[in-house]
Design brief:
Layout lengths: L5 E6 L2 E6 L12 H14 L5 E6 L10 H4 L15 H20 L4 E5 L2 E3 L1 H7 L3 E5 L3 E3 L13 H15 L4 E3 H6 L5 E3 L4 H13 L3 H17 L2 H17 L1 H13 L1 H8 L9 E2 L7 E2 L3
Parallel strand pairs: 2-3, 3-4, 4-6, 5-7, 6-9
Antiparallel strand pairs: 1-2, 7-8, 10-11
Helix pairs in contact: 1-3, 3-9, 9-10, 10-11
Length: about 290
């Protein structure tokens, strides 16, 4: 198969999906979600594959959606002129959610190997895997929770519970691998120089097990989460993601990224200063953006 934004390789019972936009810290473009799903489907169809590893080329696992493409450009995908159609947005973003969740729903175990950053949409990809091993100094989090986003996979809730999920999503903070391991978000955190060996040892322990055994254990655990209403939670989260991008504050952020560039817009978003200072809600009126 030919891919634009990932690499796919198989060796010794292990399929490796490598996010392959290293010059953009493997930021998600319009190709990557569907290509991840196609690679997972290839691994599913290959009786020689017992385990899937997801990695990032270069310095990072994944820095999230490519904001140069999705925020800074006036004609960016995933943003509509107002008034917007929430169902069209949901159709588009739910496809990406399902693409990422193919890692979770695959019958074969999936392991994320995280160095550098797994942030925003990159955290969606990592946390959709069954097991996550991070470099101790790598960072994970969902900064768009501050404005312009909601994690469509909602995996924070299912991995760490309500209080820790709220702590992460009400602040948009990043935490390192050590803290992520402490709160139970990821399986392990090791020095980056040891990351390859730690993942290899874990994969070696899994790959000798019969595929049917791996499938049964994974299906049993996953079904418990499905019984908790995971599909419904993800539907709501995906709808909220579209709303967050088209709220008055979301429209403000998009315009700010167009005006000053996404790097400055993100710096302002994460600074702790009040977000969207030029968005007002006059008494007795609905929300509106100044200058719109």
């Amino acid at each position: 198969m030919e891919f634009h934004s990932i690499r796919y390789e198989v060796a010794d019972r292990v399929a490796t999906i490598t996010l392959n936009r290293p010059d953009r810290l493997n930021a998600i473009d319009e190709h990557m979600p569907g290509e991840i799903r196609r690679a997972v489907e290839a691994a599913e169809a290959d009786s020689g594959v017992h385990v899937v590893v997801v990695a990032g080329a270069g310095r990072a696992f994944c820095s999230g959606y490519d904001l140069e493409l999705f925020a800074q450009r006036p004609d960016a995908p995933h943003s509509q002129d107002m008034p917007w159609d929430p169902m069209e947005d949901f159709r588009m973003m739910s496809r990406n959610t399902e693409d990422f969740m193919s890692l979770w729903r695959s019958s074969k175990p999936t392991v994320a190997k995280v160095q550098g950053y797994a942030v925003a949409g990159g955290s969606d990809i990592a946390l959709a895997c069954d097991l996550v091993v991070m470099a101790a100094d790598a960072k994970i989090g969902y900064p768009p929770a501050r404005v312009w986003g909601c994690p469509t996979t909602a995996m924070w809730v299912y991995r760490v519970g309500a209080e820790q999920a709220k702590r992460m999503l009400l602040t948009g903070d990043l935490i390192d691998g050590v803290e992520a391991k402490r709160i139970g978000l990821v399986l392990d955190a090791v020095a980056e120089a040891e990351l390859d060996d730690r993942v290899a040892a874990l994969v070696d322990r899994i790959k000798g097990i019969p595929r049917n055994q791996l499938m049964m254990q994974k299906m049993m655990v996953n079904q418990a989460f499905e019984n908790m209403g995971m599909a419904t939670t993800q539907m709501i989260a995906t709808l909220f993601d579209g709303i967050a991008r088209h709220s008055p504050e979301g429209v403000w952020f998009k315009r700010r990224a167009e005006e000053v560039g996404w790097v400055q817009a993100v710096r302002e978003r994460d600074s702790g200063a009040p977000i969207a200072p030029d968005v007002t809600r006059p008494h007795g009126e609905g929300p509106r953006a100044q200058g719109s």
